[in-house]
Design a protein that fits this description.
5 helices, two-stranded parallel ribbon, 2 domains, two-stranded antiparallel sheet
């Protein structure tokens, strides 16, 4: 039930953020403007994207504050991070003053996969592939028939894809 509740609550936040983005001075992140992506949520994580200017960040902060007042939920400051790319130090400081989160450094890994702006290459996912190989090798030593091992591998690969 918990993941469903999180999804419903994040829909409210998404609507608040979209309302903020309708302001004339809000600018989308360069890689997200075509699709008008502002937020992504997965499991209990939330990613917010905006252009690296103070006005856009203020709109996001206002939406977070409205959401906090309405829901009673607040961002965990110890786990929240702001990532910058090609932003002047003075603007970074202003943004960090608006959003009281710690500054992170790129590239960052999320669920074992690097978050990068280009297409993922096989080398980027090598850690995940190695992990899967170790699991399959472990299953090969079990006393399963070939059909049983094949079924086990297929079911785990499908579950990983969905996850």
């Amino acid at each position: 039930m918990s993941p469903y509740l999180f999804t419903l609550v994040m829909e409210v936040l998404t609507l608040l953020v979209r309302q903020s983005s309708s302001q004339v001075s809000f600018k989308f992140h360069a890689r997200c403007s075509k699709q008008k992506i502002i937020s992504l949520s997965f499991a209990d994580d939330l990613f917010l994207f905006a252009h690296g200017d103070c006005w856009s960040v203020k709109f996001l902060r206002e939406a977070l504050d409205k959401f906090s007042l309405a829901s009673g939920l607040h961002p965990n400051l110890a786990k929240s991070t702001v990532f910058f790319c090609n932003i002047l130090r003075a603007i970074k400081d202003q943004i960090l003053h608006i959003m009281p989160f710690q500054e992170g450094s790129l590239p960052v890994r999320y669920l074992g996969v690097p978050l990068i702006s280009s297409r993922l290459a096989a080398k980027d996912c090598k850690i995940l592939l190695d992990h899967m190989d170790r699991r399959i090798d472990n299953w090969m030593t079990k006393s399963l028939s070939f059909a049983g091992r094949l079924q086990l591998i297929n079911s785990v690969l499908v579950a990983l894809y969905s996850y």
